[in-house]
Every structure is written in C-alpha cells, then in structure tokens.
Amino acid sequence: MHLYLLSLIDRDRSERADRHLAFFLAFVAGGINAGGFMAVHQYTSHMSGVVSSLADHLVLGEWALAFLGLASFIAFLAGAATSAILINWARQRDLRSQYAIPLLWQALLLAAFAGSSRFADVNLLGHAVLVIMLLCYVMGLQNAMITKLSGARIRTTHVTGMVTDIGIEIGKFVYRNGATATKPVIADRAKLLLLSTMVGHFFLGGICGAVLFASLGLAASFAFGLPLMVVGIFPLLADARAWSSGQKGD
Asked: Rounded distance, CA 198 to CA 25, Å?
C-alpha cells in the first residue's frame, strides 16, 4: 500500500499511476465543485462560465457581480501559477515531491475552507467571496499540477474538454472507412475509456460532495482534503529521508 500511494504522486511516473491519479483527482474536483455550489451557490471549477458571466455582468452594469467574476478568474489563474512555481522549484532541486507539494498545499487550503464557517457568522457576504476565491484558487492549483504531471494530456477540474474529446473519439469509432482510404480513421479506445472513466469519477465525486456538504456543512471538505494529504505525504517523507541520509553522510 505504501509503495502504491508513493507511486501515485511520485516524480517518476507510469501510465498506470497517471490514470489512477487522474481518477482520484477528478473525483476530488467533482466533490469540491459540488461543495462550493452547496456553500455559496456557485461552481468554481470551470472558467468558461466565470468569464461569460463576467462579460454579462459588465454589460448589465452589475459591478459587484462583475468584480466577483474577475476575482474568481484571478484566483484560478493564481492557483495555476502557484502550482507551476512550486513544481519548477522542486524540479530544480530534483525532489521526488515535486507534484506532491501542490497537492499538500491543496489539502491545507481545504482544511482552511472547512474552518472558514466561523467567518460567516461575522460577515456572510465576505465569507461567500472568500470561499469562491479559495475554491477557484484550489481548482487552478490542481488543474495545473495534473497538467504538468501528464504533459498536458490530462486535466481534471472541468468536464467540457473531456466530453469534447469523448465525442471526437466516438465520432472516430463510428466512422466507416472506405475501401480505398489511405489514412483510415481509427478511434483511440484507451483514451476513450480513460476520459469516460474520469467523467464518471467527477460525477460520483459531485454526488458524494453534495451529500456530504448537505449533511456536514463545510466540515465535509476534510473528507476530500485528508486523502490528498495521505497521498501527498509519502514523496515528501522520501525526500526527507534522502536529505537526512545525505546530511549523515557529510
């Protein structure tokens, strides 16, 4: 079990580890997205809707909502930038935890999300804005991490791209090549299965997130943050052992 958990987020990657991590993070993204909607009635994983609503609010003169949309966009962007900074910093030091560090930071932020309910008692509007920005930041952080880890092959926080690719592969699957076709159209069945499974995990995560947040409130974010912490801690411990061995060797 230890070796399996280590392999999920380790620096040295395999196709199997990429797939399993993608399923896990898609589930987490679905849960957090549903939790955000339960908490503040807004989805936070996809920027298409945020940017569209920002344009709408600007045209309608709804300045407060336009500001919220802009803040959400900037928070997502900042999360992605943070992930890139952390990963590149760790890569330059050849750390095994280069992908685990953003994951652990995400887990800590979800813990902060769970504890933010106290702020709601003081300022309900301010709490809603804080939650939206925090979750957008977390989604940007996670999406950038899995994007860099997979070489831009996998993204887990928005379904639009995955469904588009599923549709493309289905179209290739049902296409009938002519007898004289020099370049036959062939569906990538492995990609189709991967993407379909990821969408399924996102959906299941959304169901679990909605149920947990409806019954437990913001404390339900621990249910998603704790597994992230468990997965992310093993490469960090491996780096700590390597550093300790090097220090003793000196």
From this structure: 9
Number of compact structural domains in the chain: 1
* Rg of the chain (C-alpha set): 20
DSSP code for 140: H
142 is a domain residue: yes
* Residue 125 maps to a domain: yes
Instruction: Dig out the tokens for 136 from the structure.
Output: 């957008």
Is 1 within a domain? no
Is 118 buried (19+), middle (13-18) or exposed (0-12) by CB count in 10 A?
Answer: exposed
Per-residue pLDDT of the chain (250 residues), as tens digits, is 778 888 888 888 888 888 899 899 999 999 988 887 877 777 777 777 788 888 998 998 888 888 888 988 999 999 999 999 999 999 999 999 999 999 999 999 988 877 766 665 555 666 678 888 888 899 899 989 988 887 767 777 778 888 998 999 999 999 888 777 778 888 889 889 999 999 999 999 999 999 998 888 888 888 898 999 999 999 999 888 888 876 555 5
CATH number at residue 104: 1.20.1250
Question: Distance of CA 81 to CAs 9, 26, 29, 124, 138, Å?
Answer: 19, 20, 18, 29, 11
Range of the domain at 138: 17-249
10 located within any domain: no
Q: How far is the C-alpha of 213 from the C-alpha of 32, rounded, in Å?
A: 9
Residue from 69, 31, 11, 72 nearest 209 by CA? 31
Structure tokens at 138: 């977390």
Q: Decide if 144 contacts 84 (C-beta within 8 A).
A: yes
Alpha-carbon span 39 to 13, nearest angstrom: 36
